[in-house]
Amino acid sequence: METMTCVVIASSEDIRQILAASLHALGVDSILLESLGELPATLHESAACGILLELTSAIRATPQEKVATQEWIELFPFAKFKVIDHEIRIAGKSLEVFVDECHEFNPRVIRKSPRRVGFLGVYLSPDGDFDTAEKTITTNISDQGYFIYSSREWTVGDRVWLRFPGNECDVCGTVRSWQQWGNNKTIPGIGVEVDPGKNCH
Protein backbone atom coordinates (compact mmCIF):
# COMPACT_ATOMS: atom_id res chain seq x y z
CA MET A 1 0.00 0.00 0.00
CA GLU A 2 1.31 3.44 -0.91
CA THR A 3 2.19 5.65 2.04
CA MET A 4 -0.31 8.41 2.73
CA THR A 5 1.17 11.85 3.21
CA CYS A 6 -0.62 15.02 4.29
CA VAL A 7 0.79 18.53 4.13
CA VAL A 8 0.45 20.43 7.40
CA ILE A 9 0.79 24.23 7.35
CA ALA A 10 1.19 26.06 10.66
CA SER A 11 3.41 28.93 11.74
CA SER A 12 4.01 27.38 15.16
CA GLU A 13 6.54 24.55 15.44
CA ASP A 14 4.66 23.13 18.44
CA ILE A 15 1.40 22.95 16.48
CA ARG A 16 3.13 21.33 13.51
CA GLN A 17 4.53 18.64 15.79
CA ILE A 18 1.14 18.01 17.42
CA LEU A 19 -0.39 17.44 13.99
CA ALA A 20 2.51 15.27 12.86
CA ALA A 21 2.17 13.04 15.92
CA SER A 22 -1.60 12.75 15.55
CA LEU A 23 -1.35 11.88 11.87
CA HIS A 24 1.40 9.36 12.57
CA ALA A 25 -0.88 7.63 15.09
CA LEU A 26 -3.41 7.26 12.25
CA GLY A 27 -0.80 5.81 9.90
CA VAL A 28 -0.26 9.00 7.90
CA ASP A 29 3.08 10.68 7.16
CA SER A 30 3.28 14.47 7.09
CA ILE A 31 5.15 17.26 5.37
CA LEU A 32 5.40 20.23 7.72
CA LEU A 33 5.38 23.78 6.33
CA GLU A 34 5.68 27.07 8.17
CA SER A 35 3.73 29.18 5.69
CA LEU A 36 1.13 28.91 2.95
CA GLY A 37 3.60 30.35 0.45
CA GLU A 38 5.69 27.16 0.64
CA LEU A 39 2.82 25.01 -0.62
CA PRO A 40 3.17 25.19 -4.45
CA ALA A 41 6.86 24.30 -4.50
CA THR A 42 6.25 21.44 -2.06
CA LEU A 43 3.44 19.95 -4.14
CA HIS A 44 5.57 20.13 -7.28
CA GLU A 45 8.08 17.80 -5.60
CA SER A 46 6.08 15.58 -3.24
CA ALA A 47 2.94 13.50 -3.73
CA ALA A 48 0.28 14.34 -1.15
CA CYS A 49 -3.21 13.09 -0.36
CA GLY A 50 -4.47 16.03 1.70
CA ILE A 51 -3.74 19.49 3.07
CA LEU A 52 -4.31 20.77 6.61
CA LEU A 53 -4.02 24.51 7.17
CA GLU A 54 -4.01 26.06 10.64
CA LEU A 55 -6.67 28.76 10.93
CA THR A 56 -4.34 31.43 12.33
CA SER A 57 -1.79 30.75 9.60
CA ALA A 58 -4.54 31.08 6.99
CA ILE A 59 -5.57 34.45 8.39
CA ARG A 60 -1.98 35.70 8.45
CA ALA A 61 -1.22 34.61 4.87
CA THR A 62 -0.72 37.44 2.41
CA PRO A 63 -3.27 38.04 -0.37
CA GLN A 64 -0.60 36.95 -2.86
CA GLU A 65 -0.07 33.66 -1.03
CA LYS A 66 -3.80 32.99 -0.94
CA VAL A 67 -4.20 33.62 -4.67
CA ALA A 68 -1.12 31.58 -5.57
CA THR A 69 -2.25 28.54 -3.59
CA GLN A 70 -6.03 28.49 -4.07
CA GLU A 71 -5.93 26.43 -7.25
CA TRP A 72 -3.67 23.81 -5.66
CA ILE A 73 -5.83 23.55 -2.55
CA GLU A 74 -8.90 22.84 -4.69
CA LEU A 75 -7.23 19.70 -6.03
CA PHE A 76 -6.84 17.92 -2.69
CA PRO A 77 -8.89 17.00 0.36
CA PHE A 78 -8.50 20.15 2.44
CA ALA A 79 -9.42 21.38 5.92
CA LYS A 80 -8.60 24.26 8.22
CA PHE A 81 -7.88 23.40 11.84
CA LYS A 82 -7.00 24.88 15.18
CA VAL A 83 -5.40 23.35 18.26
CA ILE A 84 -6.86 24.09 21.68
CA ASP A 85 -5.23 22.44 24.71
CA HIS A 86 -3.56 19.90 22.39
CA GLU A 87 -6.95 18.98 20.90
CA ILE A 88 -7.18 19.22 17.12
CA ARG A 89 -10.44 20.78 15.97
CA ILE A 90 -11.59 20.76 12.35
CA ALA A 91 -14.83 22.47 11.39
CA GLY A 92 -17.58 19.95 10.75
CA LYS A 93 -15.44 16.83 11.09
CA SER A 94 -12.78 15.05 13.11
CA LEU A 95 -9.18 14.39 12.11
CA GLU A 96 -10.12 10.73 11.67
CA VAL A 97 -12.88 11.65 9.19
CA PHE A 98 -10.46 13.86 7.26
CA VAL A 99 -7.94 11.02 7.08
CA ASP A 100 -10.70 8.72 5.78
CA GLU A 101 -11.32 11.23 2.97
CA CYS A 102 -7.61 11.19 2.17
CA HIS A 103 -7.72 7.40 1.90
CA GLU A 104 -10.10 7.84 -1.06
CA PHE A 105 -7.68 10.17 -2.83
CA ASN A 106 -4.77 8.98 -4.95
CA PRO A 107 -1.61 10.79 -3.78
CA ARG A 108 -0.44 13.12 -6.49
CA VAL A 109 2.05 15.80 -7.42
CA ILE A 110 0.34 18.93 -8.73
CA ARG A 111 -0.08 19.27 -12.45
CA LYS A 112 2.30 21.38 -14.44
CA SER A 113 -0.20 22.83 -16.91
CA PRO A 114 -1.76 26.22 -16.08
CA ARG A 115 -5.32 26.71 -14.98
CA ARG A 116 -7.37 29.26 -16.88
CA VAL A 117 -10.54 31.10 -15.93
CA GLY A 118 -13.27 29.64 -18.10
CA PHE A 119 -17.05 29.84 -17.77
CA LEU A 120 -18.59 27.00 -19.76
CA GLY A 121 -22.13 25.72 -19.47
CA VAL A 122 -22.16 22.06 -18.45
CA TYR A 123 -24.53 19.32 -17.33
CA LEU A 124 -23.08 17.66 -14.21
CA SER A 125 -24.37 14.18 -13.46
CA PRO A 126 -23.60 11.43 -10.91
CA ASP A 127 -24.16 8.83 -13.65
CA GLY A 128 -24.02 8.42 -17.40
CA ASP A 129 -27.78 8.69 -17.87
CA PHE A 130 -27.95 12.44 -17.04
CA ASP A 131 -31.51 11.98 -15.69
CA THR A 132 -30.69 14.01 -12.57
CA ALA A 133 -28.02 16.24 -14.12
CA GLU A 134 -27.39 19.65 -12.59
CA LYS A 135 -27.25 22.59 -15.03
CA THR A 136 -24.19 24.58 -14.01
CA ILE A 137 -20.91 26.16 -15.19
CA THR A 138 -17.19 25.67 -14.92
CA THR A 139 -15.24 28.43 -13.20
CA ASN A 140 -11.81 27.41 -14.44
CA ILE A 141 -10.30 24.76 -16.70
CA SER A 142 -6.99 23.04 -17.31
CA ASP A 143 -5.67 20.17 -19.39
CA GLN A 144 -6.46 17.83 -16.48
CA GLY A 145 -9.97 18.96 -15.63
CA TYR A 146 -12.35 21.58 -14.32
CA PHE A 147 -13.63 23.29 -11.23
CA ILE A 148 -17.42 23.19 -11.50
CA TYR A 149 -19.91 25.23 -9.49
CA SER A 150 -22.30 22.93 -7.61
CA SER A 151 -24.52 23.22 -4.56
CA ARG A 152 -24.97 19.46 -4.24
CA GLU A 153 -23.19 17.24 -1.75
CA TRP A 154 -20.27 15.27 -3.15
CA THR A 155 -17.57 12.99 -1.82
CA VAL A 156 -13.95 13.00 -2.88
CA GLY A 157 -13.54 9.96 -5.13
CA ASP A 158 -17.05 10.14 -6.63
CA ARG A 159 -17.29 9.44 -10.35
CA VAL A 160 -19.07 12.14 -12.36
CA TRP A 161 -20.19 12.66 -15.95
CA LEU A 162 -20.08 15.97 -17.81
CA ARG A 163 -21.91 17.04 -20.96
CA PHE A 164 -21.22 20.36 -22.65
CA PRO A 165 -24.12 21.84 -24.68
CA GLY A 166 -23.31 21.82 -28.38
CA ASN A 167 -20.55 19.26 -27.93
CA GLU A 168 -21.14 15.58 -28.70
CA CYS A 169 -18.43 14.51 -26.28
CA ASP A 170 -19.48 13.32 -22.80
CA VAL A 171 -16.68 13.45 -20.24
CA CYS A 172 -16.15 11.14 -17.30
CA GLY A 173 -13.96 12.04 -14.35
CA THR A 174 -13.30 11.80 -10.63
CA VAL A 175 -14.06 14.30 -7.89
CA ARG A 176 -10.72 15.37 -6.40
CA SER A 177 -12.00 18.18 -4.15
CA TRP A 178 -15.31 19.43 -2.80
CA GLN A 179 -16.12 22.89 -1.47
CA GLN A 180 -19.38 22.71 0.48
CA TRP A 181 -22.20 25.19 -0.14
CA GLY A 182 -22.54 27.64 2.73
CA ASN A 183 -18.84 28.41 3.20
CA ASN A 184 -18.92 32.01 2.07
CA LYS A 185 -15.14 32.18 1.76
CA THR A 186 -15.03 29.85 -1.24
CA ILE A 187 -17.13 29.07 -4.31
CA PRO A 188 -19.12 25.87 -3.73
CA GLY A 189 -18.34 23.12 -6.18
CA ILE A 190 -16.04 20.30 -7.15
CA GLY A 191 -12.62 19.94 -8.71
CA VAL A 192 -12.91 17.19 -11.33
CA GLU A 193 -9.95 15.36 -12.82
CA VAL A 194 -11.10 13.98 -16.18
CA ASP A 195 -10.09 10.58 -17.45
CA PRO A 196 -7.00 10.70 -19.73
CA GLY A 197 -7.83 11.62 -23.31
CA LYS A 198 -11.39 12.69 -22.44
CA ASN A 199 -11.12 16.48 -22.10
CA CYS A 200 -13.44 18.27 -24.52
CA HIS A 201 -12.85 22.01 -23.97
The whole-angstrom Rg is 17 Å
Look at the structure and name the CATH superfamily of the largest domain. Response regulator
Strand content: 25-35%
Share in helix = 10-25%
Mean pLDDT: 86
Shape: elongated
Order of strands across the biggest sheet? Answer: 7-8-9-12-11-10
Q: How would you characterize the largest beta sheet?
A: 6 strands, antiparallel, barrel
Q: How would you portray this structure in words?
A:
Helix content is 23%, strand content 33%. The mean pLDDT is 86. β10 and β11 (170-179) form a beta hairpin. By secondary structure, the protein is of the alpha+beta class. It contains five helices and twelve strands. The strands form two sheets. It has a six-stranded antiparallel beta barrel with strand order 7-8-9-12-11-10. Strands 2-1-3-4-5 form a five-stranded mixed β-sheet. The protein has helices spanning 13-25, 39-45, 55-60, 63-73, 95-103; strands at residues 5-9, 29-33, 50-54, 78-84, 87-90, 116-117, 121-125, 134-141, 145-149, 159-163, 170-179, 189-194. It folds into two domains: 5-103, Response regulator (Rossmann fold), CATH 3.40.50; 116-194, Beta Barrel (Thrombin, subunit H). The protein is elongated. The N and C termini lie far apart (35 Å).
